[in-house]
Amino acid sequence: MLPAEAILTDPARLRTYDCDGLSHLRVTPGLVVLPETTAQVRAAVLACAEAGVPFVARGAGTGLSGGALPVADGVVIALTRMRRILRVDPADKVAVVQPGVVNTEISAAARPYGLYFAPDPSSQTVCTIGGNVAENSGGAHCLKHGFTVNHVLAATVVLPTGEVVELGSQAPDPVGYDLLGVFVGAEGTLGIATEITVRLTRAPLAVETLLAGFPGVEPAAATVSAIVAAGVVPAAAELMDALAVEAAEAAVGCGYPPGAGAVLLVELDGPRAEVAGALAEVEELCRRHGAFDLRRARDESERAALWRGRKSAFAAVGRISPDYYVQDGVVPRTVLPEALLRIGALAERAGLRVANVFHAGDGNLHPLVLFDAAVPGAAEAAERLAGRILGVCLDLGGSITGEHGVGVEKMAYLAHQFSRDDLDVMQFLRCAFDPAALANPGKLFPTPRLCGEPPGPRRGAHPLQDAGLAELY
Questions:
Q1: Whose CA is closest to 414, among 339, 329, 325?
Q2: What local confidence, expressed as pLDDT, does residue 356 receive?
Q3: Contact 145/183 with Cβ under 8 angstroms?
Q4: Less CB within 10 Å around the terminal CB: N or C of the chain?
Q5: Rounded to an integer, what distance in angstroms lies between the CA atom of residue 29 and that of residue 11?
Q6: CA gap 171, 158 in Å, rounded
Q7: Do 372 and 378 meet the contact criterion of CB atoms below 8 Å apart?
Q8: pTM of structure
Q9: pLDDT tens, position by position, 411-451
Q10: 325: left (phi over 0), alpha (psi -120 to 50) or beta
Q11: How far is the CA of 231 from the CAs of 146, 219, 228, in angstroms?
């Protein structure tokens, strides 16, 4: 079913697929296949099902939680050759695409019709829509426009058994259980999407971008809560602390306000009159909370310049630290100041620096824990601090992930957010889709269970624990 050049067995080529963006975790797969059609994906999955071999679907490999980490002696089904935009329908405002289509390519195809694809992960110039669906990816503009799940209408899915099913519908309110909603964000554990119908959004008539410099992070975070409480919903509200600004300046020379303890970037879009009124209100709230420098982009080039520092922030941290650990947690927007104070206190006790870059509008934190891997014990200390930050998020009523997913990285923390019964229900659902537990195994759940194993308190050791392949938390 697949040509020989679409099956990789050479050890050197297999190494290309041994990790995703969480690069300190690496496993070389036994085989990589590169399908181009739904039929070829189905053939690969059927072969795995018949042989009892685990498989992992992979897109561009930009994920940050180990969600695409291969299984040793398993198969990686890489979807990067499935890059066709099958249809753009401006009348229905939808596009049908294959999973290997890069996020920004959808907007490029829709632009001639005055439309675009709203979800915009920071890696949108390289990440693919299949991975966005698997992780329910977010982005800077999801505050107003919603996450990937809000923009996926239907999907053709190859189940782990090899069956091909259609989930969802272009109907505005399809009947029955929302199986598409279950599938989006399941991190590849329920099957592989091979065709995806996405909602396209009308391009806004007006866009205003404002940058505000504050003396510290707390007043900047409080400003975001005040903006939303006033009834203004920005398209984006992004916040960077002094350390993140320092890194961005070193990397791209973004010219942010000198001496700022924090920089807040607010973008508004919509009808011209509405945007103009909201902009005046946001400027006033910024001043009231202590902003000492306000800059409004006058054209598209200035808008891009204001965004340059924020878009480069993660990579820019490499200018001020040999290594860094990217964390991803969520807190309610109103407790952002307290969360940042507690993170600062944890960092001080650990003797490490933390640069904070985050989607302030929806409370999605991205603390970057800085360390030097050449120093013995530094990497372990950074990982411990990152875990404690997740504890802060949960203490304040938040979540262990906002958009990066659980993958391998956060499995140990899932049981801190959900009860045993919650996890058992999730496992039963997973088993309904994948009774042989072959699709992306070893991800998401802290306590691996076999399909058919009764829920509730465990009696004795799990077989995988006996085999030394899993740890109970």
A1: 329
A2: 95
A3: no
A4: C
A5: 9
A6: 22
A7: yes
A8: 0.91
A9: 989 999 999 999 999 999 999 999 999 999 999 987 554 44
A10: beta
A11: 17, 19, 5
